[in-house]
Design goal:
The protein contains 6 helices and 7 strands, in the order H-H-E-H-H-E-E-H-E-E-E-E-H. The protein has 332 residues and is of the alpha+beta class.
Amino acid sequence: MTEQTATPTAPTEEPAVPEQELPPTGAVPAAAAEPVPATDAPVTDVPVTDVPATQPVPAAEPPAAPEQALAVAESVPAPKSSRRVLRAVARWTAAVLVLGGLGTGTALGITSMERTDVPGLATEGDGRWDYPELSLPALPAGSPRPFNEANVAEVHHADVRKLLLPAPAGATADKKLTGGWVSTSQYLSVYQKSKRAELGQVLKDSALRHITARGWTMPDGTSSRIYLLQFNSTAFAEAFRDEISDNTSIGAQLIGAPRTDLDDTWSSGGRVENTATYAYAEDKPYGSEQVRHGYVLSGDTLALVIQSRKGKAGTERIPFHQTLILQNQLLG
């Protein structure tokens, strides 16, 4: 058997905890220092004039005492250009320190926030439901999976009730479809009355073993029902699939969906190898509610997945595809 995973949850032999990726943190760029313009005026040559020979040369003054020299130095103001340079350096040093503090604070703030709280990093919901982590049920000792080389008949040896997809978080369980065995009449009630007798006879002739089902309703009003039909052989399962549906047409319409066509948005993504999936959607105008449904053929077992919701918005495509894929993976 080939086991695949699909977004957001996929069945595995041993449940694994998905890793979460930490949000990237942005670094605040340090401010670039602007060039300080030169302020010193160019030095020009001073013309030298002749000193008259008759003019007396003043005698050199004696050197000043150290205390007097220090006092004179302190009283002499610094050149203006030097003061401007010092003030510019002081300003840019303060700016760098302030920006550095802001950058550190921002980085620490983003690191401590949840991803959905960070603007630009918030992950918008794409409509997928929150299913629990899935795992394949244990097999009887010595029994292979349906598509193992040792299982030529492609039979599901596990309890088919444990292959039903569980309800997602927030769902309200259907009291009639709780995951146990259901009658043939219960299953046939999803089809239009004109086809029930014919389909019932086909099921009798197809060596049907049993049917299990689960249903639930989401807070937005979307109703989901899943039926698993297990036959005595893969050939019987394929024959019944051909009776009710194939890749080009539908042989049996569901209640509330008189105009159903192939779902052209379905890409078979996540489908398990050796299985077949068919998705259908009721087109507009679809009345008070829209119905989406699909079939999964996996060895000796056929699954029917139905979702419907009242209102003009209709049934959402993404959760329907998600449910179909996950049920396919459990059967694979």
